[in-house]
Design brief:
Layout: H1 2-21, H2 32-55, H3 65-101, H4 105-121, E1 126-136, H5 157-169, E2 174-177, E3 180-181, E4 189-191, E5 194-197, E6 200-202, E7 206-211, H6 214-223, H7 225-237, E8 240-250
Antiparallel strand pairs: 1-7, 1-8, 2-3, 2-7, 4-5, 5-6
Helix pairs in contact: 3-4, 5-6, 5-7
């Protein structure tokens, strides 16, 4: 026991002596980035876990356009069914109102008052001389010319609005877009290269029909700055634009007339 204890003491003294004689090496500092390695690894693990959970066993880059197209078609079918049901209910309400008017003078008076305003409000079809304007996208090109973008080759919301505003300014008595009656509450919006009007989506070419003096309507179109810009684009990018004078029919408005907001004019 004494020999072992003495040997250990001798070895410890020898190590101290060697350490004193050798030059002391500076203590290396731990790089800062190595401290963040565990944090980065933890974040990466969390990201992988979240990605796997979100994917649900499917590829995140999987092309889901077929499912989106099917969803859109389903929604269109639902909207069409709801519109048909609403139209049927409106006809039923009108029929019952007419029956009550035969025995109620107050209802009869209000019905006649409303009937006198149907034409001005857009709830009756009109036929007369007018103008048909069509706007269309440019044909698809295999390669775009220098300085031309895809955005230059499609009809935009502003183009449709420019034609509509010009026709109103030219004295149009009634108007329709894609065979849908345009009212004061109608809003023209474009989503991509499609037109959204009263909850329905339409693809080009976009047809705008207006009843009025054809000469005055043409003059108003020629005077519109927005229409002139589009005509320039027709020449430069092969977009489609046409005006056709004829006897036209503008259908009655058949969608919901419920107002979502209104203000008192001042």
């Amino acid at each position: 026991m004494e020999y072992t204890s003495g040997a250990a003491s001798w070895q410890k003294a020898l190590r101290r002596l060697v350490a004193a004689l050798l030059p002391r090496r500076p203590r290396q500092r731990r790089p800062g980035w190595s401290i963040g390695v565990p944090m980065i690894a933890a974040a990466a693990g969390l990201l992988f876990t979240t990605t796997a959970s979100t994917a649900g066993g499917t590829a995140l880059r999987e092309d889901r356009r077929p499912q989106l197209t099917e969803l859109i078609e389903d929604r269109r079918a639902q909207v069409a069914a709801n519109e048909e049901r609403a139209a049927r209910l409106r006809r039923e309400v009108e029929s019952r109102t007419t029956d009550l008017a035969d025995s109620d003078d107050t209802i009869k008076e209000q019905q006649q008052r409303a009937g006198a305003s149907l034409g001005a409000a857009g709830f009756t079809a009109l036929t007369g001389s007018g103008l048909t304007v069509e706007l269309n996208d440019a044909p698809q090109l295999s390669s775009l010319p220098e300085g031309v973008e895809n955005d230059d080759l499609v009809v935009h919301q502003g183009d449709v609005q420019a034609v509509v505003n010009a026709l109103w300014a030219g004295g149009a008595e009634a108007m329709s877009i894609m065979d849908v009656r345009v009212l004061s509450t109608s809003a023209v919006r474009c989503v991509g290269n499609t037109l959204l009007l009263h909850g329905r989506v339409y693809s080009p070419p976009f047809k705008i029909v207006a009843i009025g003096d054809p000469a005055a309507l043409r003059q108003a179109l020629a005077a519109s700055e927005g229409v002139r810009w589009f005509r320039d684009a027709v020449e430069n990018y092969q977009l489609g634009y046409s005006e056709r004078e004829s006897t036209v029919t503008v259908p009655a408005f058949e969608d919901s007339t419920t107002l979502r907001s209104a203000t008192v004019p001042r």
